[in-house]
Amino acid sequence: MVARGALVCIYSKAPLLADQVAINHRTAPISERHRTMLDFAMYCGLEVGELTDEWEARLKTVGFSHDDIWDIVAIAAFFALSNRLVTLTGTPPNEEFYLMGRVPRDK
């Protein structure tokens, strides 16, 4: 979570965005497309994760193709796996990621 949060901050150039999304992606300042993507990723992780006609229509409405949907599922599954592995083994995040993208770096 810490490393991925750092990447969100770096690529978005918004130092608060990762924390805003982590707290509640539905109220974070993101596009409807990103919100729908995160809703679907959460559904895949918490529910059965079946690609219903309703989900497919909702995702396509905001511009996702079948390949995009595959990518969302694959990335959500990979993150679920990696999160469980580090939790099970008690592996702490790398310290350098805590502030990365959240505070200006020295040039």
From TrEMBL:
Source domain of life: Bacteria
GO MF terms held by the record: peroxidase activity
Transmembrane segments: none
InterPro entries according to UniProt: AhpD-like
Keywords from the named record: Oxidoreductase, Peroxidase
Entry coiled-coil feature ranges: none
Protein name in the entry: Putative peroxidase-related enzyme
Taxonomic lineage from the root: Bacteria, Pseudomonadati, Pseudomonadota, Gammaproteobacteria, Oceanospirillales
